[in-house]
Design a protein that fits this description.
The complex is a heterotrimer of chains A (about 500), B (about 290) and C (about 450). With about 500 residues, chain A is an all-alpha fold. The longest helix of chain A has about 50 residues. A two-stranded antiparallel ribbon of chain A has the order 1-2. Chain A has 20 helices and 2 strands. The radius of gyration of chain A is 30 Å and the shape is globular. In chain B, α2 packs across α13, α3 runs parallel beside α6 and α12 runs antiparallel to α13. The longest helix of chain B has about 35 residues. Chain C has 3 domains: about 45 residues; about 180 residues, Periplasmic binding protein-like II (D-Maltodextrin-Binding Protein, domain 2); about 200 residues, D-Maltodextrin-Binding Protein, domain 2. In chain C, strands 3, 4, 5, 6, 9, 10, 13, 14, 15, 18 and 19 form an 11-stranded mixed beta sheet that branches. Chain C has a two-stranded antiparallel sheet with strand order 1-2. In chain C, strands 7-8 form a two-stranded antiparallel sheet. In chain C, α1 packs antiparallel against α2 and α10 packs across α19. The chains are: A mainly alpha (about 500), B mainly alpha (about 290), C alpha/beta (about 450). Chains in contact: A-B, A-C, B-C. Chains A and B meet through α6, α8, α10, α11 and α12 of A and α1, α3, α4, α5 and α6 of B.
Chain lengths: ~500, ~290, ~450
């Protein structure tokens, strides 16, 4: 289709055309994605190879201080007069050794078995039972992960230390002096400003997000479940057993059916919930921000109260209002003068799902209004001015300026919301608790999405290994999807379009 | 021609007003119900009518004095705890979100895209699976059952929420940066003196979202606080009032407590809305 | 030092001896006690009532303990602990009582037992998971406990031949509670009577059919009773039952619910007390934990009875419910294991149970207190005790039990449920049982 033909289409046809294009291109996009992942892996290993080579070469070329840096961090830097950095390197090594000796190694040494000493009972005086705790598999796993991550970081520091030592050696050979602390600080506020900005957040995320995440991923490969609960009993590595049991349609047909059906509903839910919020929220925001509409602050406030009330309160409130004896039925009864008892959650799956989606609009639209309003007000006024000079009407300015601008700015938000909805625990759990129930599913109801099912599995049956395996599968789908969409979206490709 | 245009605009505006009024009523009515019943004097949990028959302040009085009930439920203390945690975590989160967004939007460095991609997908794991790990990490630091632990939990992951503010920063013209660089400003000065003052809407957005977090989380906070009721936040406290042991006698206090929690946040929203409008004029890009 | 080693050795010998006769069912408690008698050095160690000899403390002193008690009992437990300190005046104690809901207690024990209480109360259904996680210590003074408490509570507290917790109550169940101006005691005997009376008065009968804890009544009454776990320790075992008979019972339930649509309401159990308070509820099924608030709401009008009967094929069939007990447990990682055991033993003892029966209206597990006039004259406790005879014990419940049972209840009360369709009912029952057992 040529550009001219495209321009002649009406918006719906254009949307259909774009959708078709997206779907047709999707396989290639997915293929490209995995190719990129493959390339990254290859690059990683060639990088390691190169690293080893440099490691040896540097050692051969290094002077005594550089050579000593291979053993004691920071010696090279201190020798060349870069004292503060050398001392920092050295301190890292000292702290690492102390950590490993007094804490890390006591756990790390059991990492391969996750503990062998079993908990047993002793009787003091022959009567008083005393539990003598053995190894705690969970703590071994967690603190081993911590130690491994720390080791990787320290190894990076170690390599940096060697490189730095050699760099300073070369600099001295060329008669240059190392930079002073003052110069370095200045550099960190300008040229290397990204390091200054990112180091603190990255450190926090590393400890409290990435570490627990690695832990959880590893749990999927262990036998951590109801019969293997630390500290009473040990659990150990089981390879891919948990994943295998998920797809075992022969022995656990109900489980497999639950998994498939819930996946389907989760996707439907995520799509509908995201787009209903996005489109309706945009309409609301446009109305409120339309020129000539007064009391803008009042309207925004009305809607925004939903955000101000904690979700578990507002959703529990909604849950109670929608019960058979709840406020909504009472109101309807009073209006119709009949005894109305609509079952919102208990009988019909369709009814319950519609209710959840509508209530989710009630919860989610204010968020969209809030962010859209901020963006709407930020559209450069001169864009509108020039459009007006060109004689564009309100519809045209909207489709040509407002809409593209909004979509450009909010694409990332749309993706986060989509993924957020896949993982939207609160709305489902607090509103319906998964209901209506069914005998078709294993430990799940008809509005349960995968996350709430996971929650049931961990809370009710302590199937941590299985739950972690499902969590990983959900994650892979989410991550692949959003990486593809995000990286092929316009706002990512030309980040500077509106600058 | 002009008249009919004006007429059409009026018609459209009337329609919009009507729509907003109806929707506004739908949006607010659950909270009107909530507020009304927090003043209800009679009944326990459910009543089969909409408007309370007896109006009383007793629920609020009981909530704050702990009178007529359990001394272990100390709502004023919980409120203070939450406020402290919210303030600290809001400051830390806002700063880290802005730092990360600025770095990704304005600075160009090695592995920037990789960092962004990793940052984006990290938040996609179902969070509650990792809670027990977070608990034991905090325990290794000796922080469990403290408010510091809550501040850490609520602000540590904030950097991952960079997408929206990065999208916002992307719309600020780079010409401004370039002009400042020519004038000899460092990246640091550009961040604090040029970008930040122009970003009030997104700062407000970030402040609000991060301030609300501590008021709403009840799962992770409960795991960290355990049996240490004096250090509970309002969310765990209200959740406790919802539990089977309490709900019959504490339901109305629970409603009152919900109102008390909602009020400061709503006021904050109202105040911030002023800045919101200011942000428009200040952030108006005329370069 | 030598002493400690000697004690440890003796203890280990006793432990191995216990393990050795673990397979020998039934006799383990007897042989365990004979071991404890012979191996301990102090054969003068005496136990009188709920008080034990100081020698059981070993070398523990300056004892610091934390006790978790449900909110309603905190002040009473504090009083009892003061008495406990007086009884053992030779030792110094620092005992704190922290209010903690019972089900929450078990969750916290599993999350991190090392910061949990040394002594805590728990409902019987939590016992399994606590034992699995190895965070609860077995009972030390089991001979005395077994002798003093009713057989059912001991049986339910015993897992793999080890008694794991001190019985505290035998009242953790639900019963029929009614407004006696609406329902007469005679009408309260039959389900049909209760519903008819409520309908006549224009009031609701509330039963939480969506919650497996209550809804399992349908299955149990139909004959599909539970019987512990299979040998894998995971799968729920059911007794053999007559399927046709069971289907007929379910049909009878469905028919009755359909006939009294509008009167029979499946609502959260918390609506019972609310309904009494505002006069919209005539009767309901509620548990011992809500007795106080129901009594307060109804005042003089309060009536209690065992669950009613239902007419199946012209025969009155007693409703069978889920029934549990409460226990006092000792944390396995307690720093003062002996003192914690002694305190738990004291708190679960006769005197303390009597105080709880008098002040809180809790049904005792102790055989002597069960015959106490306070208990004998309590309408509620008698109704519960009566229901306890027609109940499945809430112990060894598979984690997969509750959701399918709740679904069974939901399906029976649903608008589109057809009571005459025996085939559909049969399939529902089969699916429910299969789902509980995680089959197919």
């Amino acid at each position: 289709m040529t550009y001219v033909e495209y321009k002649q289409l009406n918006p719906f046809q254009r949307f259909a055309h774009n959708l078709k294009k997206f779907i047709v291109n999707a396989p290639r996009a997915i293929a490209n994605f995995f190719k990129a992942v493959g390339r990254a892996i290859v690059k990683f290993f060639t990088g390691i190879g190169k690293g080893f080579k440099n490691y040896g070469v540097t050692f051969v070329k290094g002077d005594w201080a550089t050579k000593l840096s291979y053993l004691i961090f920071g010696i090279g830097d201190i020798h060349k007069g870069k004292y503060y950095k050398g001392i920092l390197f050295f301190l890292t090594e000292v702290l690492y050794v102390l950590y490993m000796v007094f804490f890390g190694w006591t756990y790390l040494r059991d990492f391969t078995t996750l503990g062998t000493v079993e908990t047993h009972m002793e009787f003091v005086n022959g009567v008083i039972p005393k539990t003598v705790y053995g190894d705690n598999s969970m703590l071994i796993l967690l603190y081993s992960v911590l130690s491994i991550v720390i080791t990787v970081v320290v190894f990076a520091v170690y390599i940096a230390n060697i490189k730095d030592a050699y760099r300073h050696q070369v600099m001295r050979a060329e008669g240059e002096k190392p930079t002073s602390l003052k110069q370095d600080v200045k550099d960190f506020l300008d040229g290397k400003y990204h390091i200054t900005l990112l180091s603190f957040p990255v450190l926090m995320i590393g400890i409290f997000n990435i570490l627990p995440l690695i832990f959880m991923i590893l749990i999927a490969f262990t036998s951590y479940d109801k019969t293997h609960m630390p500290p009473g009993t040990l659990f150990t590595w089981v390879g891919l057993d948990n994943f295998a049991s998920l797809f075992d349609v022969v022995h656990s047909a109900r489980r497999a059916k639950t998994f498939i059906d819930l996946t389907e509903w989760t996707l439907i839910w995520a799509v509908v919930a995201t787009f209903s919020n996005y489109i309706l929220g945009m309409i609301f925001a446009l109305m409120i921000n339309k020129k000539g509409i007064k009391l803008k602050a009042l309207w925004r406030t009305l809607f925004v109260i939903t955000i101000a009330v904690p979700q578990f309160v507002s959703l529990l409130l909604m849950n109670q209002m929608l019960q058979t004896n709840g406020a909504v039925n009472v109101l309807l009864s009073e209006i119709t003068k009949q005894d109305v008892q609509i079952q919102f959650f208990n009988t019909s799956a369709f009814m319950a799902r519609m209710t959840v989606i509508i209530v989710n609009c009630w919860v989610g639209i204010p968020y969209t209004i809030l962010s859209m309003s901020g963006i709407l007000m930020n559209i450069p006024e001169d864009l509108y001015e020039s459009a007006r000079i060109d004689g564009a009407g309100p519809v045209k300015t909207f489709t040509k300026i407002t809409l593209p601008y909004m979509i450009f700015v909010t694409t990332p938000q749309l993706i986060t919301q989509f993924v957020g909805n896949i993982n939207n625990f609160n709305v489902i759990y607090l509103l319906t608790g998964g209901g209506p129930t069914t005998e078709q599913y294993y430990q799940a109801g008809q509005t349960d999405i995968l996350v709430t099912w996971l929650f049931n599995l961990t809370m009710n049956s302590q199937d941590y290994g299985l739950a972690a395996a499902i969590g990983i599968l959900v994650f892979i789908v989410c991550a692949t999807l959003s990486l593809i969409v995000y990286n092929s979206s316009k706002s990512m490709k030309d980040e500077e379009a509106f600058s | 021609m002009i008249k009919s245009y004006k007429f059409r605009r009026h018609l459209a505006n009337t329609f919009i007003y009507l729509f907003l009024i109806v929707m506004g009523i739908i949006w607010v009515s659950p909270f009107v119900y909530l507020v009304m019943h927090s003043f209800r004097g009679e009944g326990l949990i459910a009543v089969d009518y909409l408007i309370p028959k007896q109006w009383t302040l007793q629920n609020y009085i009981d909530l704050f004095t702990g009178a007529g009930g359990n001394a272990a439920l100390n709502f004023p203390r919980w409120f203070l705890n939450t406020f402290i945690v919210a303030c600290f975590s809001c400051v830390i989160s806002t700063i880290s979100v802005l730092m990360v967004s600025y770095a990704f939007s304005r600075l160009r460095f090695k592995a920037r895209k990789k960092f962004m991609n990793v940052g984006m997908i990290l938040g996609m794991f179902p969070g509650f699976m990792t809670m027990i790990a977070i608990y034991y990490l905090l325990k290794a630091m000796g922080l469990t059952q403290t408010l510091v632990a809550l501040v850490i939990c609520y602000s540590c992951g904030a950097g991952l929420g960079f997408q929206i503010s990065k999208g916002f920063f992307d719309t600020i013209p780079r010409a401004l940066d370039e002009a400042a660089t020519i004038d000899g400003a460092t990246k640091n000065q550009i961040f604090w003196k040029i970008i930040l003052p122009m970003s009030k809407p997104i700062v407000v957005y970030t402040v609000l979202t991060s301030f609300i977090g501590p008021w709403t989380d009840f799962i992770l906070a409960k795991i960290i606080m355990g049996d240490n009721r004096p250090y509970y936040t309002v969310a765990i406290g209200l959740q406790l009032m919802q539990s089977a042991d309490f709900i019959n006698t504490y339901y109305k206090q629970f409603l009152a407590g919900s109102v008390v929690v909602a009020v400061p946040i709503t006021i904050l929203f109202l105040m911030m809305q002023k800045y919101y409008v200011e942000g428009v004029t200040a952030g108006g890009v005329k370069g | 030092m030598k002493k400690i080693i000697a004690i440890l050795l003796a203890g280990m010998m006793a432990a191995t001896a216990l393990v050795g006769c673990g397979g020998n069912e039934g006799s383990s408690s007897a042989s365990g006690s004979s071991n404890s008698g012979s191996s301990s050095s102090g054969d003068a160690a005496k136990i009188e009532g709920s008080v034990v000899d100081y020698s059981y403390f070993g070398d523990e002193d300056n004892i610091k303990l934390k006790v978790w008690a449900p909110d309603a009992t905190v002040s009473l437990v504090k009083k009892q602990i003061e008495e406990f300190k007086k009884v053992y005046s030779e030792k110094t104690f620092d005992i704190s009582v922290v209010a903690q809901g019972e089900s929450d207690a078990a969750t916290q024990m599993q999350n991190d037992a090392s910061v949990a209480a040394d002594v805590f109360s728990l409902p019987s259904d939590q016992l399994n998971s606590l034992v699995d996680a190895g965070v609860i210590a077995p009972v030390a003074f089991k001979d005395q406990v077994i002798e003093a408490n009713s057989e059912d509570t001991i049986k339910a507290g015993t897992i793999k031949d080890t008694l794991y917790a001190y019985p505290e109550t035998n009242d953790n169940g639900y019963y029929l509670v009614y407004d006696n101006t609406v329902v007469t005691p005679e009408q309260a005997q039959t389900f049909e009577g209760v519903l008819e009376a409520c309908k006549a008065a224009g009031k609701k009968f509330i039963f939480d059919a969506g919650d497996g804890f209550y809804a399992c009544t349908f299955a149990f009454t139909a004959g599909a009773k539970i019987d512990g776990l299979e040998e894998d320790g995971l799968t729920q075992k059911f007794v053999k039952y007559d399927e046709d008979e069971a289907v007929k019972t379910l049909q009878a339930f469905a028919q009755l619910i359909k006939d009294y649509k509008g009167t029979f309401q499946s609502l959260n159990v918390k609506n019972v007390a609310s309904g009494f308070a505002n006069g919209t509820c005539g009767a309901g099924v509620d548990g011992s934990w809500d007795t106080a608030v129901n009594e307060k709401s109804l005042g003089e009008k309060f009536g209690a009875a065992k669950l009613p009967t239902i007419k199946v094929d012209g025969e009155d069939k007693q409703l069978v419910s889920m029934f549990g007990y409460k226990y006092i447990g000792v944390n396995g990682s307690s720093k003062f294991p002996a003192s914690a055991q002694i305190l738990a033993y004291y708190l679960a003892g006769e005197e303390c149970q009597k105080q709880r029966a008098e002040e809180l209206g809790w049904g005792p597990s102790n055989k002597n207190v069960q015959n106490d006039p306070v208990v004998k004259e309590s309408k509620v406790l008698q109704a519960i005790a009566e229901q306890g005879k027609n109940a499945c014990v809430q112990v060894n419940i598979a984690s997969t039990f509750w959701t399918p049972m709740g679904n069974l209840g939901n399906k029976l009360v649903a608008d589109d449920c057809d009571p005459t369709d025996a085939a559909a009912m049969k399939k529902l029952l089969q699916d429910t049982i299969a789902n509980v057992r995680d089959e197919g």
